[in-house]
Every structure is written in C-alpha cells, then in structure tokens.
Design a protein that fits this description.
Shape: elongated
Number of domains: 3
Distance between the termini: 28 Å
Order of helices and strands: HHHEEHEHEEEEHHHEHHHEEEE
Helix content: 40-55%
Number of strands: 12
Structural class: alpha+beta
Largest sheet: 5 strands, antiparallel
Amino acid sequence: MKQKYEAILETVVKTFLQTHEPIGSAMLKDKLPFQIAPATIRYYFNQMVERGDLTQLHKSSGRIPTESTMKRYWRKHLRELELLSDAMSEVARIGEEEDLFILFKPVKSNRLRAVERVKDRFLILVFDTDEYAIRYQAQLELFMNGLIGYELEEVKRIAKDVGMISLYYKMRAKNDEEITSVNSEALIRVAGEKSSWGKRNIRHFLDGDIIEELGCGLYFDPLLPKGFMALRVDSVIENRPTKMLCIGAIDQDFTKIFKEV
C-alpha cells in the first residue's frame, strides 16, 4: 500500500510539472504504471490531502502537490546529475523556455603567487593570470604575504571581509567578465513579486558572487523566497569545467536541463 501511495504521488508530481494544472483521478488513471479504479485514486487523494502531500484549491477541482512534496521530489531526483547538452547555447535556450535564471562560471586555478613591493608606494599582487596594484603599507604587505597560495576568489572574499573594498571591486570586475548569466528577467520578476526579499538579495544574485558562495546541492528558503529553489552543480560545458547555478519556481521542470545518472 505504501509503494502504491508513493507511486501515485510521484506520478501526480510528474504530471503537474508537465501540465501545471490540478490533477484529477481520470487524468491520472491513464498515466499510472498499474491498473487502478478512479474511486481508489480519489481515496488515495483524500489521504494525501490529509497528510499535507497534496492540496485542493477548490472543492470540485483536482489536486496539486504542496511545497513540501515538491521539495522531497527534487531532493530525490536532483542529486547525481548530468547536463542533457554540453552546449551553453542549448542550456540557455531551455533555461529561457522554462523561465529559469542561470549563471555559468568557468573553473580555473588562479592563485596568488607573489606580493611585490614597488618603491614603498605600491604592492603588486601577482596571480597566475592577473595582477592587481594596491597602495603600500607595511602591515598590509605582511597580511597579503600570508595569503600567497590562495585562489583569487578566496582573496576576493577576504578583501571584502576586512574592508579592502577597492581591491574587492577590482577583483569583482574580473569576476564579472567570467560569469555568463541567462534570463536575468526571471530573477528580476521574483524580486518584484517578493519585494522584501528582492531589496536584500537581488544585487547579490545578479552580480554572480552567489555562485562562489554555494556548494553543490539544492537550496530553498530562506536563501530564496518560498516557492522557489536553486540548484548548484559542477558541469562540463563546451569542454570547460564550469560552475552552474539554476534558479526558478519550485514547480518548474529542472529535468529539462539535467538527467539523473
């Protein structure tokens, strides 16, 4: 009975992701992998509503998954993932069709290799592929020497935390060049509808820093407003290791981009 309950609930979620309409017993009967009478489906539906797995918007309407059901579904199905396509243009196309906001950032090593003093006027921070100049201070030179071997993103976060804002923004400018965003309008709409969330967070998401702060996995509220979720994955896109972040409504079909492995 428990297996049948779970199979019905999973089919409800999959059907809802396809149709975005309330699911009735007649509609569901043809989609289940076993024979079952509509009256029995309605019995299960009533149980699912009582347990908080489904909700019924109107007395005569079908059922839709609750937010807690959607979270459980995505935690089950968005774990071990691969992209359906490794072409950025194709991923971007699907993201726009599914109304998802997506960030891409190529992964490459860019470590701080040396701190060079120039006539007690400047310090040159020498990374693998970049250099940044800051005003010389003896204590600052000692501090930056302690960061030799750190990745640029780590140095950037430390610079922000200790109040080295000019250095942080220099590094941010480089960061912005490397990040590609898709469908920013989707995130702006979320911020507009959830204005209290948007006022606090929209800039942090649009500038791309968020992709460095999140480890791989699923994120819901309070990172995002209720009803939305984020998925951070490491992928290979066009033969380049890439950090990827997808954000959308919890009832958008993220599996259009990813497949389970």
